[in-house]
Amino acid sequence: MLFNSLHFIVFFLFVTTTYYTLPGRWRWFSLLTASAYFYASFIPAYLLLLGVIIVFDYLAGMGIERLSGNLRRSMLALSVLFNVGFLCFFKYFDFLNTNISALMSIAGIDYAADTMAGLYPGLALPIGLSFHTFQSMSYTIEVYRGNQRAERHFGIYALYVLFYPQLVAGPIERPQNVLWQFRQQMDFDWDNLRTGLWWMAWGMFKKVVIADRLALVTDPIFANPQTQNAGSLAIAAAFYSIQIYCDFSGYSDIALGAARTMGFRLMVNFRSPYFARSIAEFWQRWHISLSTWFRDYVYIPMGGNRHGRFRTYLNLLVVFLLSGLWHGADWKFVIWGAIHGCLLIFSRIANSDADYSLQASWLRTVFTFLVVTLAWIFFRAHNVGDALVILNRLAKPSLWNLPDLPISGGETGFCLLLIVLLFLKEHLLPDYVPARRSFWPSLGVATLLCYLWGVFGSNQFIYFQF
Question: Could you state, in order of their start, the residue ranges of all structural domains in the chain?
Answer without folding.
Answer: 6-187, 191-277+356-457
